[in-house]
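Hi R.,

As promised on Friday, here is the backbone we talked about, encoded as structure tokens. Could you run it through your design pipeline when you get a chance and send me back a sequence?
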């Protein structure tokens, strides 16, 4: 474990925003709560389950909160160790939307299954299914299984309906596996959509396609009771389709520059709950300032997207190195060393994974702090 240092002391409750040491990851609690309620209300109106992805925040307390507000739809995890952290913290309903390979991990997975009220894992080939059945039989535990269908993302998932029928049948006939249904992660459509209407049309088309796969599997005699889909950008369109039983958005709790770009029709700066608070540490020229947050505090993993200032339009974050963020301040004449600037970040999930702590504020005062308990849990 990392050696503790004085900076590991959490800001005390009641601390004013202006007194928080930087760089710090801030969460506006009012905005976060509104974001969670927004998707929960959507799910309720369209009679679809909301199982939020906890890969975004990796904090059990927030998983419990999302689960409660969404009427007990459970949570989604992307790594086994993330799921183990959530289970240890009392979350009892988990879908692991990832392919688990290797005996040691399968042993962990099956033991985890046994401790939960609901658990399902993801497969897309016989090389996943056969070893899982073997370990489940050895430990005499029944494991829930979801079959992944590739709807065009070209990542994981079966690519032919014949293969899907064959695998679904194999799973359904396995003594220690329980075939629960399918997942189709249609996030690929966001790169093609040019408008809200376009996004809705592409999501509907993807769900129509998924419905055909489901029909083919059911025609082969295997009931498909769960149909899981959705990212933050797509869930509120895909989730309207009658074939879908569950949506799995992650980033909606916080939003980020990516979501502003994808869903500009409903997401603006004021809908982004998570920001990184920085301090201007240098102003070498009148048109250049440097803040104390570079790529080690703000993940820059997405296609050249840059952080954007939360409360200003006249400052541009133009470049980064590990601990430095270059700002173009040629349009701003009031920036000085020691000033504090807050940025909406390119990608929340990978940024949170770089930090020990999130600081929750209401009315610019610390009301809550969280340890990012599943931070770095990638195994
Ligand atoms: C399978 C799966 N489902 C859901 C999500 C959540 O998507 P988002 O974080 O865009 O809401 C992800 C994100 O990577 C994913 O891989």
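Update: got your reply. Pasting your designed sequence below so it's all in one thread:
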């Amino acid at each position: 474990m990392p050696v503790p240092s004085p900076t590991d002391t959490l800001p005390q409750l009641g601390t004013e925003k202006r007194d928080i040491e930087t760089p710090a990851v801030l969460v506006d609690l009012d905005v976060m709560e509104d974001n969670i309620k927004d998707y929960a209300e959507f799910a309720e109106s369209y009679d679809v389950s909301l199982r939020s992805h906890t890969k975004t925040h990796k904090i059990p307390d927030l998983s419990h909160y999302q689960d409660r507000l969404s009427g007990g739809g459970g949570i989604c995890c992307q790594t086994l160790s993330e799921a183990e952290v959530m289970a240890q913290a009392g979350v009892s309903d988990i879908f692991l939307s990832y392919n688990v390979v290797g005996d040691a991990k399968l042993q962990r997975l099956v033991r985890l299954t046994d401790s939960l009220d609901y658990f399902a894992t993801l497969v897309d080939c016989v090389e996943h299914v056969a070893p899982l059945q073997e370990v489940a039989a050895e430990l005499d535990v029944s494991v829930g299984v979801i079959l992944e269908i590739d709807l065009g993302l070209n990542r994981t998932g079966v690519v032919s309906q014949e293969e899907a029928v064959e695998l679904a049948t194999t799973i359904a006939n396995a003594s220690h596996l329980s075939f629960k249904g399918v997942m189709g992660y249609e996030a690929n459509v966001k790169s093609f959509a040019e408008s809200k209407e376009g996004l809705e049309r592409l999501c509907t088309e993807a769900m129509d396609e998924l419905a055909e796969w489901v029909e083919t599997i059911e025609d082969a005699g295997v009931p498909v009771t769960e149909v899981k889909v959705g990212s933050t950008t797509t869930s509120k369109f895909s989730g309207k389709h009658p074939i879908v039983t569950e949506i799995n958005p992650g980033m909606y709790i916080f939003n980020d520059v990516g979501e502003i770009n994808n869903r500009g029709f409903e997401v603006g700066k004021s809908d982004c709950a998570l920001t990184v608070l920085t301090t201007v540490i240098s102003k070498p020229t009148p048109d250049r300032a440097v803040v104390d947050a570079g790529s080690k505090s703000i993940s820059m993993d997405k296609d050249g997207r840059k952080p954007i200032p939360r409360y200003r339009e006249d400052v541009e974050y133009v470049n980064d190195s590990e601990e430095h963020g270059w700002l173009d301040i040629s349009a701003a004449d009031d920036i000085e060393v020691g000033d504090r600037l807050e940025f909406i970040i390119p990608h929340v999930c990978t940024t949170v994974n770089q930090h020990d702590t999130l600081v929750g504020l209401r009315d610019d005062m610390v009301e809550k702090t969280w340890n990012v308990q599943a931070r770095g849990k990638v195994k």
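One thing I noticed while checking it: The two ends are 16 Å apart (CA to CA).

Thanks again,
M.
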